[in-house]
């Protein structure tokens, strides 16, 4: 007799994407839907929290319905409800959590609260239709989590077990991409627009400082952001001294040189930690792991196998919540319906 599959319906609403997904046996993605608010927040140059939570209210039910339709499933074929409990914007998280509670209560299903950072890590094991599946995890593995709000190195010793080795002391790498993009008058979000500009630029034109945080696994990205600002001011001064009508900045070279410095730090520090802890694999996840230059740096070494999620799973989505939620569910980490959101929630 065959064992029936376990299907998890997952909801993500920690920031500005309302998303749902259904995963079978943890890794197989059956259906997914994302309502992005990017265009709305682009007007403000960043996420406006109250606008974000109101948009989640409008999108959460349709997104769940679309996901079920895509998976050709009905709610009575679901075995557990997973939801991002934190970290993130409280008003945004509450919408997803309340939707999940309503489904769990109405369908009498277990509720599994998922850490958004854990979900980013588990994005590496989501199997999508027509995409080559990534390797099974081999522990210990070194996970670089590099996103809009976080930049940290975690040693993962088993499923759901983490030792946080180092984290940013100021800006997250994604935040630095966003701030530098604003400085260079590139679009929001900053990561993709810096990457695009960098494709046409000379990465060796400007030598921006690398903060190595020697003796620790921590990161710091505020110095490089300030160095880009100083360089821009210097170039603008030179330009206005020669009475140019409009200071034309070498945007592409600035973007390429900035990106090179950030990738250099992320790659070098991750490799160093992987050696120190004898990691069997490196895993890179979070929005910045979509960066082509970062992906290329890791793909170009053969010291460690590297697991990087498909580009579509790097930024926020619910598939990753479903995979992490499945491992929580089978390990009996279910939650009562009384849980609250956690706007800060370190992995360990
Ligand atoms: N190609 C890219 N290159 C560099 N950065 C990128 C790229 N694509 C996206 N990013 C950055 O990734 C970030 C968004 O990632 P993500 O959605 O994981 O962050 P978040 O959910 O806001 O933060 P967190 O996960 O820490 O709560 C943004 O800062 C964005 O600029
Ligand atoms: Mg995220």
Could you explain the architecture of this structure?
- The protein is an alpha/beta fold.
- It has 10 helices and 10 strands.
- The strands form 2 sheets. It has a 5-stranded mixed sheet with strand order 3-2-1-4-5, with helices on both faces.
- The mean pLDDT is 95.
- Adenosine-5'-triphosphate binds at residues 15, 88, 116, 120, 147-150, 174, 177-178, 189-192, 195, 286-288, 290-291, 315-316.
Task: Please write out the topology.
Elements lengths: L6 E6 L4 E8 L3 E9 L1 H5 L6 H23 L8 E7 L3 H18 L3 E5 H7 L18 E6 L4 E8 L2 E7 L5 H11 L6 H10 L22 H20 L9 H26 L4 E5 L6 H8 L6 E2 L11 H12 L18
Parallel strand pairs: 1-4, 4-5, 6-9, 9-10
Antiparallel strand pairs: 1-2, 2-3, 6-7, 7-8
Helix pairs in contact: 2-3, 4-10, 5-6, 5-7, 5-8, 6-8, 7-8, 8-9
The structure holds adenosine-5'-triphosphate and magnesium ion.
Magnesium ion binds next to helix 4.
Low-confidence stretches: none
Oligomer: single chain
Please report which band the strand proportion falls in: under 5%, 5-15%, 15-25%, 25-35%, 35-45% or over 45%.
15-25%
- Biggest β-sheet description: 5 strands, mixed
Count of distinct strands: 10
- Give the bound compounds: adenosine-5'-triphosphate, magnesium ion
Secondary structure: helix percent? 40-55%
Distance between the termini: 40 Å
Strand-pairing-aware structural class: alpha/beta
What radius of gyration results from the CA coordinates? 21 Å
What spatial form do the alpha-carbon principal axes imply?
globular
How much is the average pLDDT? 95
User: Number of helical segments?
Assistant: 10
Strands of the biggest beta sheet: in what spatial order? 3-2-1-4-5
Helices and strands, in N-to-C order? EEEHHEHEHEEEHHHHEHEH
């Amino acid at each position: 007799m065959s064992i029936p599959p376990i299907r998890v319906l997952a909801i993500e609403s920690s920031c500005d994407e309302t998303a749902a997904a259904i995963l079978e046996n943890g890794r197989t993605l059956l259906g997914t839907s994302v309502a992005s608010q990017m265009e709305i927040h682009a007007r403000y140059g960043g996420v406006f929290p109250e606008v974000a939570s109101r948009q989640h209210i409008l999108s959460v039910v349709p997104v769940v319905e679309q996901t079920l339709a895509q998976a050709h499933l009905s709610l009575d074929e679901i075995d557990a409800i997973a939801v991002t409990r934190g970290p993130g914007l409280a008003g945004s998280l509450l919408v997803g959590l309340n939707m999940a509670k309503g489904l769990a209560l109405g369908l009498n299903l277990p509720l599994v609260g998922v850490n958004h950072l854990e979900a980013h890590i588990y994005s590496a094991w989501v199997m999508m239709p027509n995409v080559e599946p990534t390797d099974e995890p081999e522990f210990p593995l070194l996970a670089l989590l590099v996103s809009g709000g976080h930049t940290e190195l975690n040693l993962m010793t088993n499923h759901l077990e983490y030792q946080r080795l180092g984290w940013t002391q100021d800006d997250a790498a994604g935040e630095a991409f966003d701030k530098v993009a604003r400085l260079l008058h590139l679009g929001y979000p900053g990561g993709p627009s810096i990457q695009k500009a960098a494709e046409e630029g000379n990465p060796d034109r400007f030598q921006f400082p690398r903060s190595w945080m020697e003796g620790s696994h921590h990161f710091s990205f505020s110095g490089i952001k300030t160095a880009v600002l100083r360089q821009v001011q210097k170039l603008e001064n030179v330009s206005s001294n020669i009475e140019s009508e409009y200071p034309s900045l070498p945007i592409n070279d600035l973007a390429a040189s900035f990106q090179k410095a950030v990738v250099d730090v992320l790659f070098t520090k991750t490799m160093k930690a992987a050696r120190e802890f004898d990691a069997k694999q490196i895993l890179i996840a979070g929005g910045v792991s979509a960066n082509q230059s970062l992906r290329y740096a890791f793909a170009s070494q053969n010291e460690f196998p590297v697991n990087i999620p498909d580009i579509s799973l790097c930024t926020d989505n619910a598939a990753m919540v479903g995979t992490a939620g499945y491992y929580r569910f089978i390990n009996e980490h279910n939650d009562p319906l009384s849980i609250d959101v956690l706007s800060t929630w370190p992995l360990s």
